[in-house]
Write a structure and sequence with these properties.
Structural class of chain C: alpha/beta
CATH class of chain C: Alpha Beta
CATH topology of chain C: Pyruvate-ferredoxin Oxidoreductase, domain 3
Strand content of chain B: 15-25%
CATH architecture of the largest domain in chain B: 3-Layer(aba) Sandwich
Order of helices and strands of chain B: EHEHEHEHEEHEHEHEEHHEEHEEHEHEH
Chains: A alpha/beta (309), B alpha/beta (378), C alpha/beta (179)
Structural class of chain B: alpha/beta
CATH class of the largest domain in chain B: Alpha Beta
Radius of gyration of chain B: 21 Å
Oligomer: heterotrimer
Number of domains of chain B: 2
CATH superfamily of the largest domain in chain B: Thiamin diphosphate (ThDP)-binding fold, Pyr/PP domains
Number of helices of chain C: 6
Helix content of chain C: 25-40%
Radius of gyration of chain C: 15 Å
Largest sheet of chain C: 6 strands, mixed
């Protein structure tokens, strides 16, 4: 098929159009979120040539294969450390990790909390569809209690992770949660995340009618969106620990955390290579480190709702 | 210290020497997780890399270390990690991704005795086959085995050169003994150290995985508008996933062949008194130092013994062994495991060798290897 | 000179590792001999018996560990029990006189020397330099390494602040007259 100018989609310059159609099922929310991400990039004028997308394994992980920028489709659970490595080597480039809840919070769970703790200057977009979609619908660390999956056929007995809450308390600089229904707000939120220096995280709840909805009374793709519409309560700057998601109950979406920008991990790594830092006394180095430290006590007050915003 | 590259004579441990060799080779990124007996490599790099404008990160585990290594390598940095047994096991996942995506990097494995936690502070050589086959699937590897701090330095340089030239993760397979012993390391001036850098792609229209005649594709830089896609899935020359047997055959065949056709440039060994030898000991790393002494002791007893010391373990020098089997009648293999290189030796010579194995914890005493030599000629 | 093996045994914290390292470094870098330094690793290196080994040869050292040491330096009673039996018949034994209680020269020993290295170090101001007193003494009585080289290596390997003390320790050990 040849693409003529008149038929171009506004995002064609951001997509490897020769690789379309994509692998995602009809009713899947990943495309919606990827669209919001690319529009956010475009809105803030982020140069795709200076942007790198890293993903892991799973349905969401395939996104890296469709974007027209340097992109890496890595191993299961490891896109974050891969991104930390590439960002440390090339701090001048924008680095986004785009991957799923299983990839980033089950097999890769250790990496996300450490990247947030370090305040690595990367943006992480997680699509949370409550399930392992690509492999046929197995239990995820986000599957709600009672959820039926191919590996919890009698109902999930585990408690799911509150992803946004976990990342907020781990030391991130920006944290938000939306659903694939909140397209406009999601787009704005991703703009903020991309602009924020430091670790930024956006969780997007998204329907998987094929692997999750089908087994959990939301067979029709619209059922899941209805569930989002009925139960998502927009609230900003809550105590992130209140962001739990329970079956058939209301849950909170919004901006969980928007902290002051502080020196990033890469700022500090590169400072260490400078003569002014190296060729001085330890007392002066200690002073520099303290001067550029993160103010986690302030952060902790903000997230517990006790501090000034 | 605060010098780019050390020069002159130094009295160093193998662990420190391998770190200095890496810096001399241009390594400017290290990601690792501390583990005995390799931690001295990380300690040295944490002090030295900032001095030469490089980045050191202690990651949260070895899985992350290996992933960060690959990321930094695509970011244009020569990258290294150092680990030991249990950490090497964790790194196998992204060792495979490095193979599949043809990402240059160096992994130093200071072997200790296993399996599992085993003897954390004591020597082993049980990771030889893991370096060869540790990650799943078919591929070819390069692994070097130094016997002294001098060789740790030299082989770190060579490991980086191989990894950059052939675009492959290279393993420096040290052992605890060589890592911890101190010896003189003589370092030539920087200008005399041969350093090879990866071929960089300059043509944006060229497919990312389109190889040159040497089967190695030049590596595109990131952030320059090449719009590369790199995946651990089987891919075509554009880098795009293709889930077919044909694509797998084409890609993986090339990954294997790009090392096989260059094997003669990579393989390296030392022949010690093999010229007139009746019995030849095959050894590497610390075991080779025991074997060298045993060969001298055997000669004193009138036994015509010699040693073939593997400096490069993978690719394995089968051709050399087939030559030696024409001249020598007996073969002995000494290694600190239950028979790993033994299998390769017997496959090459097509007969049994006398095996002098130890399960780990201490190197062979020279008389233990001598006993093997005597048994062989009996 | 053919291969010579030196082993120094003591307990953790006595500095037997540094003592061996200084001698090996002096041999390798300044006396231009082929020398290897090794040490015992593991839990025993954190307290309990601890040892370091130096092997020197005219050509490159093959097997790097002491097998039958020609010279054995012992700085604790426990180390004496552990390491003394390995001394080569007719080899040289050097002991820390106050920390190793034996009745004179044991059987099978060639040369025998003793020095109250810890007491000397205390008199110099800090017992921590007992190992360097011992290095000076080893240098004198064995002649395994030249005095200039050994002293140079000592001064290179100790922190700036304690160079003078260590130099004094080395000289005192070197000049010690046995009773």
């Amino acid at each position: 098929m040849s693409v003529v100018q008149a038929n171009m989609h506004p995002l064609d310059n951001y997509l490897r159009t020769e690789r379309l159609p994509h692998v995602w099922c009809s009713g899947c929310g990943i495309g919606t979120v990827l669209g919001a991400y690319l529009r956010a990039m475009k809105n803030i004028g982020m140069d795709p040539e200076k942007t790198i997308m890293v993903s892991g394994i799973g349905c969401t992980g395939r996104a890296a294969g469709y974007v027209k920028m340097d992109s890496f489709h890595t191993t299961h659970g490891r896109p974050i450390p891969f991104a930390v490595g590439i960002k440390a080597a090339r701090p001048d480039l924008n680095v986004t990790v785009f991957s799923g809840d299983g990839d980033l919070f089950a097999i890769g769970g250790n990496h996300i909390i450490h990247a947030a703790r370090r305040n690595a200057d990367i943006t992480v977009i997680t699509i949370n569809n409550f399930i392992y979609g690509m492999t046929g619908g197995q239990l995820a660390p986000t599957t709600p209690e009672t959820g039926i999956t191919t590996t919890s056929p009698y109902g999930n007995v585990e408690s799911p992770f509150n992803l946004a809450g976990l990342v907020a308390v781990s030391g991130a600089s920006y944290v938000a949660r939306w659903t694939s229904l909140h397209v406009r707000r999601l787009e704005k939120s991703i703009e903020k995340a991309l602009k924020k220096r430091g670790f930024s995280f956006v969780e997007v709840l998204s329907p998987c009618p094929t692997a999750y909805g089908r087994r959990n009374r939301m067979r029709d793709p619209v059922d899941m969106l209805k569930y989002f519409q009925e139960h998502a309560v927009v609230k900003h700057h809550i105590n992130p620990l209140e962001g739990v998601i329970e079956p058939d109950k209301d849950f909170i979406v919004g901006e969980f955390l928007d902290a002051e920008e502080e020196p990033t991990f890469e700022d500090k790594l590169w400072e260490m290579t400078k003569k002014e830092f190296l060729y001085t006394s330890q007392a002066e180095r200690t002073a520099w480190i303290l001067e550029h430290r993160r103010h986690l006590e302030t952060l902790s007050k903000i997230i517990s709702g006790r501090g000034e915003r | 210290m605060k010098v780019e590259v050390l020069e002159g004579h130094h009295f160093l441990s193998g662990d420190v020497a391998v770190a200095e060799g890496a810096i001399a080779a241009g390594c400017r990124f290290f990601a690792g997780y501390p583990i005995t007996p390799s931690s001295e490599v990380a300690e040295r790099m944490s002090r030295r890399l900032p001095e030469v404008g490089g980045i050191f990160i202690q990651m949260e585990d070895e899985l992350a270390s290996m992933a960060a290594l690959l990321g930094a390598s695509w970011g244009g940095k020569k990258s290294m990690t150092a680990t030991s047994g249990p950490g090497f096991s964790l790194m196998m996942e992204n060792y495979g991704l490095g193979m599949m995506t043809e990402t240059p990097c160096v992994i130093v494995n200071v072997q200790r005795a296993g399996p599992s936690t085993g003897l954390p502070t004591l020597v082993g050589q049980g990771d030889v086959m893991q370096a060869r086959w540790g990650s799943h699937g078919p591929y070819e590897t390069i692994a070097l085995s130094p016997e002294s701090p001098q060789e740790c330095f030299d082989m770190a340089v060579r490991a980086f050169n191989f990894s950059e030239k052939y675009r492959i993760p290279v393993v420096v397979l040290m052992d605890e003994s060589v890592g911890h012993l101190f010896e003189r390391v003589s370092i030539p001036p920087k200008s005399e150290i041969e350093v090879i850098d990866r071929k960089i792609s300059t043509d944006k229209k060229r497919h990312i995985y389109e190889p040159d005649d040497d089967l190695i594709p030049p590596m595109p830089p990131v952030g320059e508008g090449f719009g590369i896609h790199v995946t651990g899935l089987t891919h075509d020359e554009r880098g795009y996933p293709v889930i077919t047997a044909e694509a797998q055959e084409k890609l993986v065949r090339r990954l294997v062949d790009k090392i096989r056709v260059h094997a003669d440039e990579i393989i390296d060994y030392e022949e010690f008194m093999t010229e007139d030898a009746d019995v030849i000991v095959i050894a590497y790393g610390i075991s080779a130092r025991s074997a060298r002494r045993a060969v001298i002791m055997a000669r004193e007893k009138g036994i015509k013994a010699g040693m073939l010391r593997l400096k490069v373990i993978w690719p394995f020098p089968s051709k050399k062994l087939r030559e030696l089997v024409e001249k020598a009648s007996h073969f002995v293999v000494a290694e600190i495991n239950n028979g790993q290189i033994l299998v390769e030796v017997e496959r090459a010579i097509r007969k049994e060798a006398v095996f002098v194995g130890k399960m780990g914890g201490e190197p062979h005493r020279p008389d233990e290897v001598l006993k093997g030599i005597e048994e062989a000629v009996k | 000179m053919a291969r010579i093996e030196l082993q120094i045994g003591g307990f953790g914290g006595q500095g037997v590792i540094l003592a061996g390292l200084v001698i090996a470094r002096a041999l390798s870098l300044y006396d231009k001999r082929e020398a290897v330094f090794t040490q015992s690793y593991g839990p025993e290196a954190r307290g309990g018996a601890s040892s370091s080994g130096v092997v020197v040869d005219d050509s490159k050292v093959d097997y790097p560990y002491p097998t039958k040491p020609d010279i054995m330096v012992i700085m604790s009673q426990e180390a004496f029990t552990t390491y003394f039996p390995k001394l080569k018949k007719g080899g040289t034994l050097i002991i820390e006189r106050d920390l190793v209680k034996i009745d004179g020269k044991p059987e099978g020993v060639g040369e025998f020397h003793s020095i109250p290295a810890t007491k000397i170090a205390e008199e110099l101001g800090n017992r921590i330099v007992a190992n360097i007193v011992m290095v000076g003494f080893i240098t004198k009585v064995t002649g395994i390494v030249t005095k200039e080289s050994a002293k140079k290596a000592v001064l290179e390997m100790v922190p700036k602040k304690v160079k003078a003390l260590n130099e004094k320790a080395f000289e005192t050990g070197y000049g010690y007259e046995e009773e």
